Amino acid sequence: MSSQNHPHSTKAPVTTKNPPTRRLHELDLLRFLAALAVLLYHYTGTTGGPWHDQNARELFAPTSLATQFGYLGVELFFLISGFVILMSAWGRTMADFTISRITRLYPAYWFAVLLIAAIYLTTGHGRGRPENIIPNLTMFQQGMGIQNASGVFWTLWTEMHFYAFISILVLTGVTYQRCITFMATWTVLAIFAQETGAQPLQSLLIPQHAPYFIAGMALYLIHRFGPTLLLWGFTAFSWATSIRYALPTATEHPYNIAPSNAWPAIPIAITLIYLTMSLAATGKLRHLKWRGFATLGCLTYPTYLIHYELAPPLADALHPALPYWAATTTIIAIVLTTAYLIHRLIERPLAAWLKPRLRDSFQRIRTTSPNGPRQETPHNSPPASETTAKDNTPTPHDQEPHSSTPSAPIGSTI
Protein backbone atom coordinates (compact mmCIF):
# COMPACT_ATOMS: atom_id res chain seq x y z
CA MET A 1 0.00 0.00 0.00
CA SER A 2 1.39 3.40 -0.92
CA SER A 3 2.19 5.93 1.76
CA GLN A 4 -0.55 8.28 0.62
CA ASN A 5 -3.21 5.73 1.48
CA HIS A 6 -1.64 4.31 4.62
CA PRO A 7 -3.82 5.03 7.67
CA HIS A 8 -0.78 6.08 9.71
CA SER A 9 0.75 8.32 7.08
CA THR A 10 1.40 11.90 8.13
CA LYS A 11 0.01 13.14 4.82
CA ALA A 12 -3.69 13.16 4.08
CA PRO A 13 -4.73 10.68 1.40
CA VAL A 14 -4.85 12.07 -2.11
CA THR A 15 -7.39 10.85 -4.63
CA THR A 16 -6.33 10.74 -8.23
CA LYS A 17 -8.53 8.20 -9.95
CA ASN A 18 -11.50 5.94 -9.54
CA PRO A 19 -10.47 2.32 -8.93
CA PRO A 20 -12.29 -0.84 -10.01
CA THR A 21 -15.28 -1.54 -7.81
CA ARG A 22 -17.03 -4.60 -6.44
CA ARG A 23 -20.64 -4.86 -5.43
CA LEU A 24 -21.18 -4.53 -1.70
CA HIS A 25 -23.67 -7.34 -1.18
CA GLU A 26 -23.58 -6.71 2.56
CA LEU A 27 -25.06 -3.26 2.01
CA ASP A 28 -27.77 -4.76 -0.19
CA LEU A 29 -28.72 -7.01 2.72
CA LEU A 30 -28.59 -4.20 5.29
CA ARG A 31 -30.75 -1.94 3.15
CA PHE A 32 -33.36 -4.65 2.74
CA LEU A 33 -33.35 -5.42 6.47
CA ALA A 34 -33.81 -1.71 7.21
CA ALA A 35 -36.83 -1.57 4.89
CA LEU A 36 -38.25 -4.74 6.43
CA ALA A 37 -37.84 -3.29 9.93
CA VAL A 38 -39.78 -0.17 8.94
CA LEU A 39 -42.47 -2.29 7.27
CA LEU A 40 -42.91 -4.50 10.35
CA TYR A 41 -43.06 -1.41 12.53
CA HIS A 42 -45.92 0.01 10.46
CA TYR A 43 -47.79 -3.30 10.30
CA THR A 44 -47.23 -4.69 13.81
CA GLY A 45 -45.31 -2.27 16.03
CA THR A 46 -47.16 1.04 15.95
CA THR A 47 -50.05 2.20 18.09
CA GLY A 48 -51.87 2.83 14.81
CA GLY A 49 -51.51 0.45 11.90
CA PRO A 50 -53.63 -0.70 8.94
CA TRP A 51 -56.05 -2.82 10.99
CA HIS A 52 -59.36 -0.94 11.04
CA ASP A 53 -58.16 1.68 13.54
CA GLN A 54 -57.04 -1.00 15.99
CA ASN A 55 -53.80 -0.80 17.93
CA ALA A 56 -51.33 -2.99 16.04
CA ARG A 57 -48.96 -3.04 19.00
CA GLU A 58 -51.64 -4.74 21.09
CA LEU A 59 -52.77 -7.08 18.30
CA PHE A 60 -49.27 -8.40 17.71
CA ALA A 61 -47.96 -8.60 21.28
CA PRO A 62 -45.46 -9.85 22.32
CA THR A 63 -43.79 -9.57 18.87
CA SER A 64 -44.43 -5.84 18.96
CA LEU A 65 -42.04 -5.51 21.90
CA ALA A 66 -39.33 -5.80 19.23
CA THR A 67 -41.04 -4.40 16.13
CA GLN A 68 -41.99 -1.16 17.92
CA PHE A 69 -38.36 -0.16 17.41
CA GLY A 70 -38.46 -0.89 13.67
CA TYR A 71 -38.74 2.81 12.86
CA LEU A 72 -35.01 3.01 13.59
CA GLY A 73 -34.53 1.25 10.27
CA VAL A 74 -34.86 4.73 8.77
CA GLU A 75 -31.75 5.81 10.68
CA LEU A 76 -29.89 2.82 9.25
CA PHE A 77 -30.95 4.07 5.82
CA PHE A 78 -29.41 7.46 6.60
CA LEU A 79 -26.19 5.85 7.85
CA ILE A 80 -25.91 3.77 4.68
CA SER A 81 -26.66 6.89 2.64
CA GLY A 82 -23.74 8.72 4.20
CA PHE A 83 -21.49 5.86 3.13
CA VAL A 84 -22.82 5.14 -0.34
CA ILE A 85 -23.59 8.63 -1.61
CA LEU A 86 -20.09 9.81 -0.81
CA MET A 87 -18.89 6.78 -2.76
CA SER A 88 -21.21 7.74 -5.62
CA ALA A 89 -20.12 11.38 -5.74
CA TRP A 90 -16.37 10.88 -5.65
CA GLY A 91 -14.67 11.77 -8.92
CA ARG A 92 -17.90 12.78 -10.66
CA THR A 93 -18.96 15.99 -12.33
CA MET A 94 -22.02 17.78 -11.04
CA ALA A 95 -23.89 16.70 -14.16
CA ASP A 96 -23.02 13.04 -13.62
CA PHE A 97 -23.99 13.18 -9.96
CA THR A 98 -27.30 14.88 -10.71
CA ILE A 99 -28.18 12.40 -13.45
CA SER A 100 -27.38 9.44 -11.19
CA ARG A 101 -29.64 10.78 -8.44
CA ILE A 102 -32.55 11.55 -10.77
CA THR A 103 -32.46 8.18 -12.53
CA ARG A 104 -32.12 6.31 -9.24
CA LEU A 105 -34.87 8.02 -7.28
CA TYR A 106 -37.56 9.36 -9.57
CA PRO A 107 -38.82 6.45 -11.75
CA ALA A 108 -40.03 4.27 -8.85
CA TYR A 109 -41.13 7.34 -6.91
CA TRP A 110 -43.33 8.66 -9.74
CA PHE A 111 -45.05 5.30 -10.04
CA ALA A 112 -45.54 5.09 -6.26
CA VAL A 113 -47.21 8.52 -6.19
CA LEU A 114 -49.57 7.55 -9.02
CA LEU A 115 -50.33 4.22 -7.31
CA ILE A 116 -51.18 6.06 -4.09
CA ALA A 117 -53.50 8.36 -6.05
CA ALA A 118 -55.23 5.33 -7.58
CA ILE A 119 -55.65 3.75 -4.12
CA TYR A 120 -57.25 6.92 -2.81
CA LEU A 121 -59.62 7.27 -5.77
CA THR A 122 -60.76 3.62 -5.62
CA THR A 123 -60.83 2.93 -1.87
CA GLY A 124 -60.69 6.28 -0.08
CA HIS A 125 -57.62 5.15 1.85
CA GLY A 126 -54.50 7.23 2.21
CA ARG A 127 -53.39 10.73 1.31
CA GLY A 128 -53.61 10.58 -2.47
CA ARG A 129 -55.98 13.51 -2.86
CA PRO A 130 -55.88 14.91 -6.41
CA GLU A 131 -54.72 18.37 -5.31
CA ASN A 132 -51.63 16.83 -3.66
CA ILE A 133 -50.52 14.57 -6.48
CA ILE A 134 -48.83 17.01 -8.87
CA PRO A 135 -46.76 18.71 -6.13
CA ASN A 136 -45.81 15.27 -4.79
CA LEU A 137 -44.46 14.25 -8.19
CA THR A 138 -41.70 16.83 -7.73
CA MET A 139 -40.42 15.23 -4.47
CA PHE A 140 -40.16 18.80 -3.14
CA GLN A 141 -43.68 18.95 -1.70
CA GLN A 142 -42.55 19.03 1.92
CA GLY A 143 -40.50 22.14 1.24
CA MET A 144 -43.61 23.72 -0.29
CA GLY A 145 -45.65 23.03 2.83
CA ILE A 146 -47.80 20.42 1.03
CA GLN A 147 -48.70 17.12 2.66
CA ASN A 148 -46.70 14.07 1.60
CA ALA A 149 -48.75 11.56 -0.39
CA SER A 150 -47.34 8.86 1.90
CA GLY A 151 -46.34 8.92 5.54
CA VAL A 152 -42.88 7.61 4.64
CA PHE A 153 -41.97 10.26 2.05
CA TRP A 154 -40.57 12.61 4.70
CA THR A 155 -37.30 10.68 4.62
CA LEU A 156 -36.80 11.58 0.96
CA TRP A 157 -36.89 15.29 1.82
CA THR A 158 -34.29 14.63 4.51
CA GLU A 159 -32.15 12.83 1.93
CA MET A 160 -32.54 15.81 -0.42
CA HIS A 161 -30.89 18.02 2.19
CA PHE A 162 -27.93 15.67 2.21
CA TYR A 163 -27.76 15.62 -1.60
CA ALA A 164 -27.63 19.42 -1.59
CA PHE A 165 -24.70 19.39 0.85
CA ILE A 166 -22.85 16.73 -1.13
CA SER A 167 -23.40 18.78 -4.28
CA ILE A 168 -21.24 21.48 -2.71
CA LEU A 169 -18.44 18.94 -2.34
CA VAL A 170 -18.93 17.75 -5.91
CA LEU A 171 -18.74 21.32 -7.25
CA THR A 172 -15.52 22.04 -5.36
CA GLY A 173 -14.05 18.57 -5.89
CA VAL A 174 -14.40 15.70 -3.41
CA THR A 175 -11.16 15.10 -1.52
CA TYR A 176 -10.26 13.53 1.80
CA GLN A 177 -9.38 16.89 3.34
CA ARG A 178 -12.59 18.55 2.15
CA CYS A 179 -14.68 15.68 3.50
CA ILE A 180 -13.10 16.11 6.93
CA THR A 181 -13.73 19.85 6.86
CA PHE A 182 -17.31 19.31 5.69
CA MET A 183 -18.05 16.73 8.39
CA ALA A 184 -16.58 18.89 11.16
CA THR A 185 -18.45 21.99 9.99
CA TRP A 186 -21.79 20.19 9.70
CA THR A 187 -21.35 18.60 13.13
CA VAL A 188 -20.70 21.93 14.86
CA LEU A 189 -23.42 23.86 13.02
CA ALA A 190 -26.02 21.12 13.58
CA ILE A 191 -25.34 21.14 17.33
CA PHE A 192 -25.61 24.93 17.33
CA ALA A 193 -28.94 24.75 15.48
CA GLN A 194 -30.28 22.23 17.99
CA GLU A 195 -29.06 24.27 20.96
CA THR A 196 -30.55 27.56 19.78
CA GLY A 197 -33.81 26.04 18.57
CA ALA A 198 -33.59 28.25 15.47
CA GLN A 199 -36.16 26.72 13.13
CA PRO A 200 -34.58 27.92 9.85
CA LEU A 201 -31.23 26.42 10.87
CA GLN A 202 -32.86 23.19 12.01
CA SER A 203 -34.76 22.88 8.74
CA LEU A 204 -31.52 23.35 6.80
CA LEU A 205 -29.10 21.32 8.91
CA ILE A 206 -31.45 18.49 10.05
CA PRO A 207 -29.55 18.12 13.36
CA GLN A 208 -31.42 15.03 14.59
CA HIS A 209 -30.50 13.05 11.47
CA ALA A 210 -27.18 14.68 10.55
CA PRO A 211 -25.12 12.37 12.84
CA TYR A 212 -26.09 9.32 10.76
CA PHE A 213 -25.03 10.91 7.47
CA ILE A 214 -21.79 12.21 8.99
CA ALA A 215 -20.96 8.81 10.52
CA GLY A 216 -21.69 7.14 7.18
CA MET A 217 -19.22 9.48 5.49
CA ALA A 218 -16.59 8.74 8.14
CA LEU A 219 -17.12 5.00 7.72
CA TYR A 220 -16.73 5.31 3.96
CA LEU A 221 -13.41 7.12 4.44
CA ILE A 222 -12.38 4.29 6.79
CA HIS A 223 -13.44 1.77 4.17
CA ARG A 224 -11.50 3.50 1.42
CA PHE A 225 -8.41 4.90 3.13
CA GLY A 226 -8.13 2.87 6.31
CA PRO A 227 -9.00 3.75 9.92
CA THR A 228 -7.64 6.72 11.84
CA LEU A 229 -8.39 7.98 15.32
CA LEU A 230 -10.05 11.07 13.85
CA LEU A 231 -12.45 9.06 11.66
CA TRP A 232 -13.39 6.75 14.51
CA GLY A 233 -13.84 9.88 16.62
CA PHE A 234 -16.37 11.26 14.13
CA THR A 235 -18.19 7.92 14.21
CA ALA A 236 -18.23 7.70 18.01
CA PHE A 237 -19.36 11.30 18.44
CA SER A 238 -22.17 10.77 15.92
CA TRP A 239 -23.21 7.58 17.75
CA ALA A 240 -23.45 9.41 21.08
CA THR A 241 -25.34 12.32 19.51
CA SER A 242 -27.74 9.93 17.78
CA ILE A 243 -28.68 8.33 21.09
CA ARG A 244 -29.07 11.72 22.74
CA TYR A 245 -31.54 12.87 20.08
CA ALA A 246 -33.40 9.56 19.74
CA LEU A 247 -34.36 9.08 23.39
CA PRO A 248 -36.64 12.13 23.90
CA THR A 249 -38.55 11.57 20.63
CA ALA A 250 -39.10 7.85 21.27
CA THR A 251 -41.75 8.48 23.92
CA GLU A 252 -43.58 11.11 21.84
CA HIS A 253 -46.10 10.78 19.01
CA PRO A 254 -46.00 8.92 16.66
CA TYR A 255 -43.68 6.38 18.32
CA ASN A 256 -45.33 6.36 21.76
CA ILE A 257 -42.80 4.00 23.31
CA ALA A 258 -43.14 3.63 27.06
CA PRO A 259 -40.22 5.32 28.88
CA SER A 260 -39.47 2.03 30.64
CA ASN A 261 -38.98 0.40 27.21
CA ALA A 262 -37.08 3.28 25.59
CA TRP A 263 -34.18 2.81 28.00
CA PRO A 264 -32.04 0.82 27.43
CA ALA A 265 -33.61 -0.52 24.20
CA ILE A 266 -33.05 2.63 22.10
CA PRO A 267 -29.32 2.95 22.96
CA ILE A 268 -28.84 -0.77 22.35
CA ALA A 269 -30.60 -0.65 18.97
CA ILE A 270 -28.64 2.40 17.78
CA THR A 271 -25.39 0.86 19.00
CA LEU A 272 -26.12 -2.30 16.99
CA ILE A 273 -26.81 -0.17 13.91
CA TYR A 274 -23.46 1.60 14.24
CA LEU A 275 -21.56 -1.60 15.03
CA THR A 276 -23.03 -3.39 12.01
CA MET A 277 -22.09 -0.56 9.65
CA SER A 278 -18.61 -0.41 11.22
CA LEU A 279 -18.18 -4.11 10.48
CA ALA A 280 -19.27 -3.52 6.89
CA ALA A 281 -16.89 -0.57 6.50
CA THR A 282 -13.91 -2.56 7.75
CA GLY A 283 -14.64 -5.56 5.54
CA LYS A 284 -15.80 -7.86 8.34
CA LEU A 285 -19.04 -8.64 6.47
CA ARG A 286 -17.39 -9.25 3.12
CA HIS A 287 -18.23 -12.95 3.33
CA LEU A 288 -21.90 -12.08 2.70
CA LYS A 289 -21.59 -12.57 -1.05
CA TRP A 290 -24.81 -14.35 -2.00
CA ARG A 291 -25.99 -12.89 -5.31
CA GLY A 292 -29.57 -13.01 -4.08
CA PHE A 293 -28.75 -10.09 -1.79
CA ALA A 294 -28.46 -7.95 -4.93
CA THR A 295 -32.07 -8.77 -5.77
CA LEU A 296 -33.14 -7.88 -2.24
CA GLY A 297 -31.28 -4.60 -2.61
CA CYS A 298 -33.25 -3.83 -5.78
CA LEU A 299 -36.52 -4.42 -3.90
CA THR A 300 -35.65 -2.08 -1.03
CA TYR A 301 -36.57 1.30 -2.49
CA PRO A 302 -39.90 0.37 -4.13
CA THR A 303 -40.86 -1.68 -1.06
CA TYR A 304 -40.25 1.31 1.17
CA LEU A 305 -42.23 3.63 -1.11
CA ILE A 306 -45.41 1.54 -1.40
CA HIS A 307 -45.71 -0.53 1.80
CA TYR A 308 -47.34 2.16 3.94
CA GLU A 309 -50.25 3.14 1.68
CA LEU A 310 -50.81 -0.31 0.14
CA ALA A 311 -51.44 -2.02 3.48
CA PRO A 312 -54.81 -0.51 4.63
CA PRO A 313 -56.89 -1.54 1.58
CA LEU A 314 -55.25 -4.97 1.59
CA ALA A 315 -55.98 -5.35 5.30
CA ASP A 316 -59.63 -4.48 4.64
CA ALA A 317 -59.80 -7.13 1.93
CA LEU A 318 -57.99 -9.91 3.84
CA HIS A 319 -59.24 -9.55 7.42
CA PRO A 320 -61.31 -10.97 9.10
CA ALA A 321 -61.31 -13.74 6.46
CA LEU A 322 -57.69 -14.37 7.47
CA PRO A 323 -56.28 -14.05 10.99
CA TYR A 324 -53.95 -11.13 11.60
CA TRP A 325 -50.64 -12.94 11.12
CA ALA A 326 -51.81 -14.72 7.96
CA ALA A 327 -53.13 -11.43 6.58
CA THR A 328 -49.86 -9.68 7.43
CA THR A 329 -47.79 -12.37 5.72
CA THR A 330 -49.99 -12.14 2.63
CA ILE A 331 -49.70 -8.34 2.55
CA ILE A 332 -45.91 -8.54 2.79
CA ALA A 333 -45.82 -11.05 -0.08
CA ILE A 334 -48.00 -8.77 -2.22
CA VAL A 335 -45.86 -5.72 -1.40
CA LEU A 336 -42.61 -7.51 -2.27
CA THR A 337 -44.05 -8.88 -5.50
CA THR A 338 -45.31 -5.44 -6.47
CA ALA A 339 -41.91 -3.95 -5.62
CA TYR A 340 -40.19 -6.47 -7.89
CA LEU A 341 -42.55 -5.64 -10.75
CA ILE A 342 -41.95 -1.92 -10.22
CA HIS A 343 -38.21 -2.49 -10.38
CA ARG A 344 -38.32 -4.61 -13.53
CA LEU A 345 -41.13 -2.94 -15.47
CA ILE A 346 -40.90 0.70 -14.36
CA GLU A 347 -37.65 1.57 -12.64
CA ARG A 348 -35.10 -0.02 -14.95
CA PRO A 349 -36.74 0.84 -18.30
CA LEU A 350 -37.54 4.43 -17.32
CA ALA A 351 -34.05 5.02 -15.89
CA ALA A 352 -32.53 3.67 -19.11
CA TRP A 353 -34.74 6.03 -21.12
CA LEU A 354 -33.98 9.06 -18.95
CA LYS A 355 -30.21 8.71 -18.63
CA PRO A 356 -29.10 9.49 -22.23
CA ARG A 357 -31.64 12.29 -22.53
CA LEU A 358 -30.46 13.91 -19.32
CA ARG A 359 -26.86 13.59 -20.47
CA ASP A 360 -27.77 15.29 -23.72
CA SER A 361 -29.50 18.07 -21.78
CA PHE A 362 -26.44 18.77 -19.64
CA GLN A 363 -24.15 18.49 -22.65
CA ARG A 364 -26.28 21.10 -24.40
CA ILE A 365 -25.78 23.46 -21.46
CA ARG A 366 -22.01 23.12 -21.79
CA THR A 367 -21.85 23.44 -25.56
CA THR A 368 -24.07 26.52 -25.65
CA SER A 369 -22.20 28.40 -22.92
CA PRO A 370 -20.85 31.90 -23.75
CA ASN A 371 -17.31 30.53 -23.95
CA GLY A 372 -18.29 27.87 -26.46
CA PRO A 373 -17.87 24.10 -26.25
CA ARG A 374 -15.66 22.75 -23.53
CA GLN A 375 -14.93 19.34 -22.07
CA GLU A 376 -15.94 18.98 -18.42
CA THR A 377 -13.83 16.63 -16.35
CA PRO A 378 -14.32 15.64 -12.72
CA HIS A 379 -12.30 17.45 -10.07
CA ASN A 380 -9.11 15.63 -9.09
CA SER A 381 -9.60 13.07 -11.84
CA PRO A 382 -7.00 11.82 -14.37
CA PRO A 383 -7.36 11.96 -18.15
CA ALA A 384 -10.25 9.99 -19.59
CA SER A 385 -7.98 7.12 -20.56
CA GLU A 386 -7.18 6.53 -16.89
CA THR A 387 -10.69 6.82 -15.53
CA THR A 388 -13.29 4.12 -15.02
CA ALA A 389 -16.92 5.04 -15.69
CA LYS A 390 -19.10 4.96 -12.57
CA ASP A 391 -22.58 5.54 -13.88
CA ASN A 392 -24.08 2.81 -11.74
CA THR A 393 -22.59 3.55 -8.34
CA PRO A 394 -25.47 3.40 -5.81
CA THR A 395 -26.90 4.82 -2.65
CA PRO A 396 -28.89 3.20 0.16
CA HIS A 397 -32.01 3.67 -1.93
CA ASP A 398 -30.06 2.71 -5.05
CA GLN A 399 -29.71 -0.62 -6.73
CA GLU A 400 -25.97 -1.25 -7.11
CA PRO A 401 -23.72 -0.72 -4.08
CA HIS A 402 -20.03 -1.18 -4.98
CA SER A 403 -16.80 -0.79 -3.11
CA SER A 404 -13.29 0.27 -3.91
CA THR A 405 -10.15 -1.48 -2.82
CA PRO A 406 -8.29 0.18 0.08
CA SER A 407 -5.30 0.93 -2.14
CA ALA A 408 -7.35 2.98 -4.54
CA PRO A 409 -9.74 5.36 -2.78
CA ILE A 410 -13.28 6.42 -3.75
CA GLY A 411 -16.28 7.87 -1.91
CA SER A 412 -19.92 9.24 -1.89
CA THR A 413 -23.17 9.65 0.15
CA ILE A 414 -26.97 9.72 -0.35
Class from secondary-structure proportions = mainly alpha
Strand % is under 5%
**Spatial strand arrangement across the major sheet:** 1-2
SSE string, helix = H, strand = E? Answer: EHHHHHHHHHHHHHHE
Global mean pLDDT: 87
Spans of 5+ residues with little confidence (pLDDT < 50)? Answer: 1-10, 381-400, 404-414
Main sheet record: 2 strands, antiparallel
- Separation, N- and C-terminal Cα atoms: 29 Å
Helical stretch tally: 14
Count of strand segments: 2
What is the molecular shape? globular
Proportion of residues in helical segments: 55-70%
Query: What is the alpha-carbon Rg in Å?
Result: 21 Å
Number of domains: 1
Would you kindly provide a written description of the structure presented here, covering whatever features stand out?
It comes from Actinomadura viridis. The chain has 414 residues and is mostly helical. It has 14 helices and two strands; from the N terminus they run βααααααααααααααβ. Strands 1-2 form a two-stranded antiparallel ribbon. The radius of gyration is 21 Å and the shape is globular. The two termini are 29 Å apart. Mean pLDDT is 87; it is low at 1-10, 381-400 and 404-414.
